Hints:
Layout: H1 2-10, E1 16-21, H2 25-35, E2 41-46, H3 52-65, E3 70-73, H4 85-94, E4 99-106, H5 112-129, E5 142-145, H6 146-155, H7 164-174, E6 179-186
Parallel strand pairs: 1-2, 4-6
Antiparallel strand pairs: 3-5, 4-5
Helix pairs in contact: 3-6, 5-7
Amino acid sequence: MIDQVIEKLKGLSLPLILVDDGSSRESFYSVQRMVVDQSWIKLLHHASNRGKGAAFLTGLRYARRSSYTHVVQIDADGQHNCDDIPRLLALARQSPEAIVSGFPIFGKDMPRSRYYGRLITHLLVIVETLSLSVRDSMCGFRVYPVELTNSLFDKYFIGARMDFDTEVMVKANWSGTTILYLPTRVVYPISGISHFHYIHDN
């Protein structure tokens, strides 16, 4: 699946920071071979699995060292629509200090358990923020301003695993950060496995 995502991203003429979060040696070597001649891809590696939030932070720190102003977060399993990246970036250019998040449009392939899980999370976010302004906190398809997002990690504790997506939006709300949303279609791969835990990650 990751090779298909890379192929779609290639046409956007954007640099890619790919973080391998402690996958098996065979999987890592497979990805290495896939990107070895791709100068536009920077492959970063965790020796052990540290979680989605930790992988994002590793990529974010690299982006900061490389003087990037913004990063696009996208999952490697193909659930996000790469064709919407230019639209996300257009909103980010209009509001460079805002976090721009996909607002998911789900099809009939959405598992019922995930629907109810998202509903529970959304209710908890309303309680944590005391507002309805965070319209969605779980879509991992976003544009982040690099400096602003680094400052959120410096100021607040933000979970290192699957809780990251939601926690960073809550902390952004607390800090007064503008959050914009773009409707985008999300699909669930038939073989996809969610590592979101409805208790630990809420």
